[in-house]
Structures are given as C-alpha cells and as structure tokens.
From TrEMBL:
<dbReference type="GO" id="GO:0019239">
    <property type="term" value="F:deaminase activity"/>
</dbReference>
<protein>
    <submittedName>
        <fullName>Uncharacterized protein</fullName>
    </submittedName>
</protein>
<dbReference type="GO" id="GO:0005829">
    <property type="term" value="C:cytosol"/>
</dbReference>
<comment type="similarity">
    <text>Belongs to the RutC family.</text>
</comment>
<dbReference type="InterPro" id="IPR019897">
    <property type="entry name" value="RidA_CS"/>
</dbReference>
<dbReference type="GO" id="GO:0005739">
    <property type="term" value="C:mitochondrion"/>
</dbReference>
<dbReference type="InterPro" id="IPR006175">
    <property type="entry name" value="YjgF/YER057c/UK114"/>
</dbReference>
<dbReference type="InterPro" id="IPR006056">
    <property type="entry name" value="RidA"/>
</dbReference>
<dbReference type="Pfam" id="PF01042">
    <property type="entry name" value="Ribonuc_L-PSP"/>
</dbReference>
<dbReference type="InterPro" id="IPR035959">
    <property type="entry name" value="RutC-like_sf"/>
</dbReference>
Length: 136
C-alpha cells in the first residue's frame, strides 16, 4: 500500500484558526482550506463594514493560505460560503467576482444559524497545487 503524505499548511500572513483545527491540510495535490472569517491579521478582530467587507477580508486571507500552499485563486475548484443572512448573497457575489474569474469554481452557499465571532461570512475552499488546465 502506498503512503500518502498529509502536509499541514500554516500561513503567517493569515489569522490563526479560532478553534482546534489547521488553516489548511494538503494531501497529494489537493488542498483543503478550513472556513476563513474576515479577520484582520493585525488586530485578530473582524473587519467593520458587514458582509461585503468580511467577504473581502476572508478572500484576502484565503489568498495568503493558497500562496503558502503554492496555489492560487485560479486553482480553487470548490468553494463553500456560509452566510449569517442569505440576504447578503448578492453583495457577497460582487466581492467574490473580484477574486474568481470564469471558469468559476463549483460553489455552495448556505445561510447558517450562527458563525464564530458573530461573523456575517465564512468561506472554505478546496484547491489544487500544480498547473491546472481548464477544459470547458
């Protein structure tokens, strides 16, 4: 039986997890990034400005984790967005489009009961490392 290596990814430029989990785990070429909040790495607090601002900061934080894993937004294949209020869906989409271009990753979006730190948005992704070639 061949062995797979589980690599723990930690990006110093992204906020530390708010619970007992890692920022990301890589197995083979697949990178699983935990849910990320819109936390300012310098203050360890959520950014002001509601869901669009939190989504923007969460996506910046995700970018730092992706870079640490030798990946990028282009290599994201699946995103999951958790919203405290589904009414923020359109505003978060506008922010999302600043980071992801066509062909967009697969995605799910949910309204949830409550997020850590009273956040309005949490985003998790699955990405790959290495060269990704699109076939549409």
């Amino acid at each position: 039986m061949s062995k797979l290596i589980r690599k723990i990814i930690t990006a110093a430029k992204a906020p530390k997890p708010v619970g007992p989990y890692n920022q990301a785990v890589q197995v083979g070429n697949t990178i699983y990034i935990s849910g990320v909040l819109g936390i300012d790495v310098n203050t360890s607090k959520l950014v002001a400005g509601g869901a669009p601002a939190e989504a923007n900061q969460a996506l910046k934080n995700l970018g730092e984790i992706l870079a640490e894993a030798d990946s990028s937004y282009k290599n994201v294949v699946k995103t999951t967005i958790f919203l405290a209020d589904i009414g923020d869906f359109s505003a978060v989409n506008e922010t999302y489009k600043q980071y992801f271009q066509e062909p967009y990753p697969a995605r799910s979006t949910f309204q949830v009961g409550k997020l850590p730190m009273e956040a309005r948005v949490e985003i998790e992704v699955i990405a790959v490392s290495g060269e990704l070639v699109d076939r549409v």
